[in-house]
């Protein structure tokens, strides 16, 4: 696994610079292969301008420890200070388009994973771009119940801690219930003895990545 720091400058209504890390899987040198793409959105405390702090955080931390060898390109952008992922929605979609254009990405296998603030960002991006993602994995978060119908054709596996005192578990269960009311495909894992920080438990689950590989848009 190699992790490379990169930057993307996006000009929409304002000039936004999104720094990101990108990791290529073993075997990426094979020019005949295309790979699934995972975009991982971090939580609030990782915002800023120091992209290096994300190199051993969340999904990349678990990969660095050798617990997982994932057959995906993994991209980890950094949200600017005093901003949120929904505010940087256009920048993230521009980043995805750049990665797809410059790397050997299977366009039918683009996935979103996010924790806490990043989980809210996952819900928001998928609601606004429901056809862009083969599956989403929100952790410790909730979504816009009034827009749940937009996700009726999106594969979802959500994770939450029952003892979360930052984002109550009801925020997640209410969103999942709303999606199911629109005949959506939503799967929910609740950790009965855990609180808000469930990243390691959820992201160390090899079954999650096997499930992702089964999802295509």
UniProtKB/TrEMBL annotation:
<protein>
    <submittedName>
        <fullName>Prolyl oligopeptidase family serine peptidase</fullName>
    </submittedName>
</protein>
<dbReference type="InterPro" id="IPR003140">
    <property type="entry name" value="PLipase/COase/thioEstase"/>
</dbReference>
<keyword id="KW-0732">Signal</keyword>
<feature type="domain" description="Phospholipase/carboxylesterase/thioesterase">
    <location>
        <begin position="91"/>
        <end position="203"/>
    </location>
</feature>
<dbReference type="GO" id="GO:0016787">
    <property type="term" value="F:hydrolase activity"/>
</dbReference>
<dbReference type="InterPro" id="IPR029058">
    <property type="entry name" value="AB_hydrolase_fold"/>
</dbReference>
<dbReference type="Pfam" id="PF02230">
    <property type="entry name" value="Abhydrolase_2"/>
</dbReference>
<dbReference type="InterPro" id="IPR050955">
    <property type="entry name" value="Plant_Biomass_Hydrol_Est"/>
</dbReference>
């Amino acid at each position: 696994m190699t992790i490379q720091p990169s930057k993307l400058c996006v000009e929409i209504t304002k000039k936004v610079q999104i720094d990101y890390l990108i990791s290529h899987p073993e075997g990426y040198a094979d020019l005949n292969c295309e790979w699934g793409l995972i975009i991982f959105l971090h939580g609030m405390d990782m915002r800023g301008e120091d992209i290096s702090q994300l190199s051993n955080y969340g999904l990349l931390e678990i990969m660095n420890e050798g617990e997982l060898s994932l057959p995906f390109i993994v991209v980890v952008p950094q949200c600017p200070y005093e901003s949120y992922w929904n505010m940087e929605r256009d920048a993230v979609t521009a980043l995805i388009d750049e990665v797809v254009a410059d790397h050997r990405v299977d366009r039918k296998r683009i996935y979103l994973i996010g924790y806490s603030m990043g989980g809210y960002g996952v819900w928001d991006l998928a609601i606004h771009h429901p056809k862009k993602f083969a599956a989403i994995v929100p952790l410790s978060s909730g979504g816009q119940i009034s827009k749940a119908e937009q996700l009726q054709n999106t594969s979802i596996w959500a994770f939450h801690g029952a003892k979360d005192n930052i984002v109550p578990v009801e925020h997640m269960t209410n969103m999942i219930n709303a999606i199911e009311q629109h005949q959506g495909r939503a799967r929910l894992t609740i950790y009965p003895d855990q609180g808000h920080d469930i990243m390691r438990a959820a992201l160390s689950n090899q079954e999650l990545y096997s499930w992702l590989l089964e999802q295509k848009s």
